[in-house]
Amino acid sequence: MAHGNSRYPNEYKLAYALGAEKELLEEDIRKTIPYSTSNRWRQLNPLEILGHEDPKSNALMQHIYSKLDERMQIDAAFEKALRSFVDLMQEALGGDNAFQDILKDNRESVVGWVFQNHEHITKKSLIEILGVSAATFNYWQAISLYHCDSSPLNQCAKQSSQQITLAEARSIKRAVKEVKWNIGASWAIAVREKQLAISKSTFYKYVHVLGLSEPKRKRRKPKKSKFRAKKLHQIWHADITQVKTLDGCKSYIYVIIDNYSRAILSYAVKRKIKAEYSLEVLKNAVRTHSPANSKYVTDGGPENRSIEMKEYLAKEEKHIKHLIAMKDIHHTNSMIERVFKTIKGEFDKIFQAENHEELEHVLGSIINDYNNRPHSEHGIYTPAEVLQGNNNWMDLKETLAESIKKRLATNQTCSCTKCECKSED
Questions:
Q1: Which domain holds residue 56?
Q2: What is the mean pLDDT of the chain?
Q3: In the 8-state DSSP scheme, what is residue 331?
Q4: What's the start-to-end Cα distance of the chain, in Å?
Q5: CA distance 257 to 235
């Protein structure tokens, strides 16, 4: 039972690890053990302390083994109940992914819960039951330990030096607030104007973290073969959409787009659907862009199958081949339908036109904006730039690499004093 200066008996460690030191050890013994030592013992797992001691070697060991047996029964019941609860939660939420999302959103609470309950089960077993990898848990733990209110992520800049700086966070907020279109366009414009130099995925991440957009439910989209051009004017799409002006009258917008650049090549606003109008818009696109060996994709509407249209296409057959979606090709005309959805969803001026004449005027401005704003298909570049072959004026990869270097240097020399970090690195 006696101990030297360098070692305490396992009985003492076990008593503290079991949380039963007051019951198992005399007060005189407890007073001889430094607080830091006893506190460390409380974090230990009793099963990891046991050696080959004879449980009947002395009264204290007998009592300890009795307590340990009770503890193991309680721990086994706790583990069984926890596994059942996790299975129930996963089933109720519709799968493991939804459960993992909840854990991630509440990661600091998860870390605290694991440390509160690791006396019943080892930390390794707890995170295994939760379905969290050791690397992920260690990352969550680091975030909890180095919490800092002066960081966009509430993480110490020195310990998590790859996070964006406060200045970059302000630039993200400004970009989202000032740009009237979607989040992707906000990112591209900020990068183009050198207000920011982060990747698109990082921008989206911080838009969510900073609470600048509503979270969207992830939907699994069915895989579809894409009908994509490999160069300019290889594929054109044409279609018509209807818009009702404030005077209650209907107008029809005729549009032709280029598949590769996504640019709107030709358009017209008419009061009716007529084959001559579709032909007029097509002739204008051909006259302006001089296509060669192009595919002209439309739906099977009568305006696309008129005698005049057929005669014109026969005359231009060396330059244009007419294809009916879902008849001549196994693809829909969805690309141009997406353009209509964008115009109607993001350019609300289209629904503010008082009448047909005002719609004609407004549409010119809308199409100019559409062609000259960054498109998700082209990163930071616009459909007009791709159409003109001017889509390589920025080395985005090099720009982002330089930005990472500056960000690391800024964060690693952070003089923050609000967090618990004592690092001098």
A1: 1-93
A2: 84
A3: S
A4: 45
A5: 9
Q: What is the pTM of this model?
A: 0.67
- DSSP string covering 176-227, please? HHH--S-HHHHHHHHHHTTS----HHHHHHHHHHTT-S-------PPP----
Residue 217 lies in a domain: no
Tally of domains within the chain? 2
At residue 355, the 3 state secondary structure works out as: coil
Does the residue 409 lie in any domain?
A: no
- Going by C-alpha positions, the residue among 319, 339, 383 that lies closest to residue 237 is 339
Task: Determine the 3-state secondary structure of 335 from DSSP.
Answer: helix
Least confident of 143-152, 166-175, 274-283, 286-295: 143-152
Strand partners for 294: 320
Which of 164, 163, 98 has the alpha carbon at shortest distance from 131? 98
Report strand pairing: 235-244 vs 294-298.
parallel
Looking at 47, 75, 93, which one is the last position of a domain?
A: 93
Last residue of a domain, one of 76, 93, 110: 93
- pLDDT above 70 covers a percentage of the chain that reads 84
C-alpha 202/C-alpha 187 separation (Å) is 10
Tokens 């280029």 correspond to: 258
- DSSP-derived secondary structure for 127-174: HHHHT--HHHHHHHHHHHHTB-TTSTTSB-TTTTTTSPPHHHHHHHHH
| Overall average pLDDT of the 285-311 stretch | 94
Confidence band of 410 (pLDDT split at 50, 70, 90): confident
Helix (H) or strand (E) holding 297: strand 294-298
Residue 284 has pLDDT above 50, yes or no: yes
Domain membership of residue 184 (yes or no) is no
Residues in the chain: 425
Which of the listed ranges 320-324, 408-412, 419-423 does the model predict with the highest average pLDDT?
Answer: 320-324
- The sheet carrying 264-270 orders its strands as 264-270, 250-258, 235-244, 294-298, 320-324
pLDDT digits (tens, 9 = 90+) for 3-26: 444 578 777 887 887 777 887 788
